[in-house]
Amino acid sequence: MSSEEVSRAIRALYGTDARHQMEANQYLMSFADTQGAWEVCRELVLTSDASQIRFFGANVLHSKVRKEWQTLPEENRAAACGVLRELVLDSMRKEQSGALLVTRRLALALGAAAAQQASAVADFVSTALGLGARDQGAQGALVAFALLCALPDEMEQLAPLTGSGAGATPRPSAPDVMPYLSSVVQLVEHWLAGSGAGGAAEEAPADVRKAALACLRTWTALAPDAMSL
To answer: How many CB atoms neighbour CB 38 within 10 A?
Structure first.
C-alpha cells in the first residue's frame, strides 16, 4: 500500500459515490492495521497538499501510538518520538491559520507517546515550552498549549489496564509530570499577563488566552492541592 494508493482511497471516501466510499472505507481500515501505515502516514502528513489527507494520516498515527506503542522495539521509540515532533512542527508551519486540526491531532499522537514513555516527557515539555516563547508568536503558543493539554489527557485515556481480558495490552504506569508543573504555570501566566517584547503591555489574542486557561485547568487538576486558584 503506497501513499498514492492511500490518498486515492481517502479522496474516494470523501467523494459522492456510495459504492466507492464503502470500498475505500474497507481498504483504509485494513491499511490502518498494517505495520507499513506508520511510514505511509508520515509521508501523507509531510507531502500532501490536501488537509483531509494530512488529517487522515495524523489520525491513524494517533490511533497507532495509542494501540501499538508498547509493541514497538525499545530502540525505535525515541526515533518515533522525534518523527512525531518534526511532524508537529512541519504541520504548524503549514497551518498558518484556522483551527490547526492536523497539528492538534499530531499533538495528541506525541502526547500519547510521552504518556507511555517516561524518558520522553522532558523533551516533550521542553518542545512545548519552546513553542510557547513569545518570539514564536500566537501560533506557537496555541501549539504549545495543545501539546501541554495532550499529555495529561492522554495519560488519563491510557491509564494502565487492570483487567485480564483477551487481547489486553498492559501499559506502564503514567509518568510523573509534577516536576514540570511550575514551568507550565509560568508559561500560562506569561501569556495571560500580556507582557510583550521589551516588557511592553500587549494582550494576547483571545484564542491564546482561552488555550492558556484550558492548559492551566488540565495541569492543576493533576495536583489539586498544589495550587490555590
So the answer is: 17
